[in-house]
From TrEMBL:
The keyword Metal-binding does not apply. This is Transporter YisQ. Keywords: Cell membrane, Membrane, Transmembrane, Transmembrane helix, Transport. Residues 446-468 are annotated as: Disordered. Coiled coil: none annotated. It is a multi-pass membrane protein. It comes from Paenibacillus glycanilyticus. CDD domains: MATE_like_8. The lineage of its organism: Bacteria, Bacillati, Bacillota, Bacilli, Bacillales. NCBIfam families: matE (TIGR00797). InterPro entries: MATE_fam, MdtK-like, YsiQ.
Length: 468
């Protein structure tokens, strides 16, 4: 049993299914972008703009799901499976309620929301259709995120991966049928992409629920969702989760604000940024997978009182991640121009995108540093510090300086990207300094010493050693 748990929570066993899942999500986005580009560059701009809006609103339910995920891993590490089960059920229930509220808002007011965010008038008709349909299905995203997060933090990262495979295959196939009117379906265009998105997500939710019911030692039933609620545990979820939610909100709202700046520059710049989002996502996929896996592993170790091992593993994962994202960024810089030509024939968009790929060489290592060590701090409960670094840097640099350099000084996308790079490195340096102090690892050492007085922090014969 010790060997199985050793393997289950090793960094590689956690990371590779997450990578496959995220890679397939990237393919979903890339396929969306490629297929939508056959409609028009304006349609691409609407999808990119809407994605930033949806990401901003997702932080409302990811606050609960994120805090719950860390606590699930910690409780399993400390062999408290019943608490882990209760936390998971509560996270799904609360996320569903929040997601339903968001769905009603986006379905009822798509035009008003797009106007508030300064979307160009020529894009408004497409935006109303896309936001109302995909936004109306945000409850599915809320439930899917909570289920995936809970399952993943039990050490089962393969389940969400297999679900992502099925969801992507179905989505791409339906896109082809609904956009171009194949197999007897009407030619719906961008509306077809929106409908395809909601259907594929609904099917994913059904599959994830089937996995979720058997994810813990004691079977979960439908009755648990109506009866089970522990206020003390929920307060603990919020204590860890709300700073993570604020942190995520800072990022997505700064990105949404940046999209409004870019929208002021014009539809060409907005389309370019959307294409760049797709390329950058591919570049960072494996590094981000390592960062997520590291958070699960460190939370598990922290729950078991294995403080020093958690500290050492974070640096191994960081160096591996830095090497991977640097190589990926270099390869993307060399071939990115050819990839852009698959999406668009507009020479202005291609030229602008190639210049940003060069800046991406600087951006990606900073993102890896910030994400890797930031997730390590989150895993041990130091979420407030990560939150304050985000509030400070994203407000002053990502939001204010981006406007000054991009809009006021007229540097456009180049100026905005320069500020994004500076923001990542500033936050990365801050979280690294905090992690090196080991402040929030000391409680784990004391816990382990108290529970195993004869063996110190090694945890005795029942400890589980986790490796990269």
């Amino acid at each position: 049993m010790q060997k199985r748990e050793h393997n289950k929570f090793s960094l590689w066993m956690l990371a590779w299914p997450i990578f496959i899942e995220l890679f397939l999500q990237f393919l979903l986005g890339a396929a969306d972008t490629l297929q939508v580009s056959r409609i028009s560059d304006d349609a691409v701009a609407v999808v990119g703009f809407s994605t930033q809006l949806f990401s901003a609103l997702m932080t409302l339910f990811m606050t609960v799901a994120g805090g719950a995920g860390i606590l699930i891993a910690q409780r399993i590490g400390s062999r408290n499976n019943e608490d882990a089960r209760t936390i998971a059920i509560m996270s799904v229930k609360v996320s569903a309620v929040i997601g339903l509220g968001i769905s009603v808002l986006l379905y009822a007011m798509p035009g008003q929301i797009a106007s508030l965010l300064q979307l160009p008038d020529e894009l408004m008709p497409l935006a109303k259709t896309y936001i109302s349909i995909v936004g109306g299905g945000m409850v599915l995203v809320a439930v899917m995120s909570a289920l995936s997060n809970a399952i993943r933090n039990t050490g089962n990262t393969k389940g969400p991966m297999y679900t992502a495979i099925g969801m992507n295959v179905i989505h791409v196939g339906m896109n082809y049928a609904f956009i171009f009117g194949k197999f007897g379906f009407p030619e719906w265009g961008l509306k077809g992409v929106a409908i395809s998105t909601d259907i594929s997500r609904l099917l994913a939710v059904i599959v994830l629920f089937m996995m979720f019911f058997g994810a813990f030692a004691r079977q979960i039933t439908f009755r648990d969702f109506f009866k089970l609620f522990d206020r003390t545990l929920f307060k603990e979820i919020l204590k860890i989760g709300w700073p993570m939610g604020v942190n995520m909100s800072c990022w997505v709202f700064s990105q949404l604000l940046i999209f409004t700046y870019i929208a002021r520059l014009g539809a060409v710049e907005l389309s370019t940024r959307t294409y760049m989002n797709t390329l950058e996502s591919f570049c960072f996929l494996l590094g981000y997978s390592l960062a997520l896996a590291l958070q699960i592993q460190i939370a598990h170790l922290y729950g078991a009182g294995k403080a020093e091992e958690a500290y050492r593993n974070s640096y191994r994962a960081l160096w591996i991640g830095l090497g991977i994202v640097t190589v990926n960024a270099l390869v993307l810089y060399l071939i990115g121009g050819h990839i852009l030509k698959l999406f668009t024939k507009d020479p202005e968009i291609i030229a602008m995108g190639i210049s940003l790929l060069g800046m991406n060489l600087l951006l990606q290592p900073g993102k890896m540093l910030n994400m890797g060590i930031g997730n390590a701090l989150n895993a041990v409960g130091d979420t407030r510090y990560v939150m304050w670094t985000s509030i400070t840097s994203m407000t002053l640099i990502a939001s204010i300086l981006s406007y000054i350099f991009g809009i006021t000084l007229g540097w456009g996308l180049v100026g905005i990207y320069a500020c994004m790079i500076l923001d990542e490195y500033i936050r990365g340096i801050w979280v690294l300094q905090r992690w090196r102090k080991k402040k929030f690892l000391k409680p784990a050492q004391e816990k382990m010493a108290a529970s195993s007085p004869n063996t110190g922090s090694s945890g005795g014969g029942t400890s589980v050693t986790l490796e990269v």
